[in-house]
Amino acid sequence: AMAAKLIDGKAIAEDIRKELKAEVEVLKAKYGKTPGLAVVLVGERKDSQTYVRNKKKACEEVGIVSYGTDLPETASEEEVLKVVADYNADPSVHGILVQLPLPKHIDEQRVLDAISIEKDVDGFHPLNIGALAMRGRDPLFVPCTPKGCLELLKRSGVQLSGKRAAVVGRSNIVGMPAALLLQREDATVTVIHSRTPDAQRICAEADIIIAACGKAEMVEGDWVKEGAAVIDVGINAVDDPSAKRGYRLVGDVNFAQAAERAECITPVPGGVGPMTIAMLLRNCVDGATRAFAAGH
Ligand code: NDP
Question: 7, exposed or middle or buried, with CB in 10 Å at 0-12, 13-18, 19+?
Fold first, then answer.
């Protein structure tokens, strides 16, 4: 029997898009200008093309103008850097997103570091990550997926200050910034990774779990404290002959087991996933708001 309250990421993301649409209208009325996002895609990966298409469509829905540059797989690093430099200089662009992964011959770090921190809507620039880690500093942008996790917790009324949190995973794009965000909210955070002994025991003491390890259903029922809040970032395809496509998506948490003990929990799909794009749009609007206020 499921006891937990479901954290409906799809509905929350929908609310956020409505809020952003209204904010974009206010910006237009006040400054006569519209927020703009530039998306750079290198190569022909089908999954990347789908992500880019979805991001552009989401922009249009809230009134953000999307620009795009598609470069062939064979594009040189210099060509990609030139595209980034042009968008850095373009006052109608307030966010620049380089779709990852880049082809192997291109130095991903060098390209990401070239994005102006004022337009770093993915929040991956080391200066933005550094500010996130430091007391008394505020990053211009926070990475979208962990920002979405925190937004889900806040909008579900989960108290963070003084609570124990466990983050499973320490990647640059999810686990590490999620842990920093929780710490900024005065939670006491333990970061679990592939060499951590006793991951189960650490999680079982946590009031909040953010699971981002990329291992299907690793966080089982007895990893979850009674009354905990559970945010499942994982997206894993597992074989399922009874499903139409031959597979189904599961998270990094065993949902059925965890839901018997948690106070609230995100489903997969429909939890963190929809929040990632909503936070990208949030970052674009924030970037534009700052630029307009500064007279750019
Ligand atoms: P990475 O593979 O980059 O990182 C996984 C992390 O989990 C690593 O820090 C790794 O440890 C740790 N880990 C792996 N196995 C274990 C284990 N057995 N026990 C404890 N820790 C372990 O993944 P990402 O952070 O990019 O993504 C995590 C998950 O989130 C994936 O399922 C991905 O698909 C999903 N995702 C979802 C998004 C969304 O929008 N909802 C966006 C981005 C990702 P170590 O550092 O030691 O290797």
Answer: buried
CA 59 / ligand 1 centre spacing (Å): 27
Sheet holding 208-211: strands in order across?
A: 5-6, 264-265, 229-232, 208-211, 164-168, 188-192
Class of the CATH domain delimited by 143-273: alpha beta
Please give the distance of CA 84 from its chain centroid, rounded to a whole number. Answer: 21
C-alpha 65/C-alpha 34 separation (Å) is 7
Contact by Cβ (8 Å): 132, 177 = yes
The domain spans of the chain are 31-117, 143-273
Nearest to 39 by CA among 124, 99, 115, 100: 99
Distance in angstroms (rounded) separating the CA atoms of residues 275 and 144:
8
Q: Is 77 exposed, middle or buried (0-12, 13-18, 19+ CB in 10 A)?
A: middle
- pLDDT-derived band at 2, boundaries 50, 70, 90: confident
Complex ipTM:
0.99
- Residue 46 pLDDT greater than 80, yes or no: yes
Strands (E), 29-76: 36-42, 65-71
Residue 38 alpha carbon to ligand 1 centre in Å: 27
Provide the pLDDT for residue 1: 67
List, for residues 134-149, the tens digit of each pLDDT value.
Answer: 999 999 999 999 999 9
- For residue 68, the one-letter residue type is G
Q: Which residues' Cβ are closer than 6 Å to ligand 1?
A: 145, 168-171, 173-175, 192-196, 199, 212-215, 233-236, 252, 272-273, 276
| pTM beyond 0.90, yes or no | yes
pLDDT score of 29 more than 70: yes
Which fold is adopted by the domain 31-117? Rossmann fold (3.40.50)
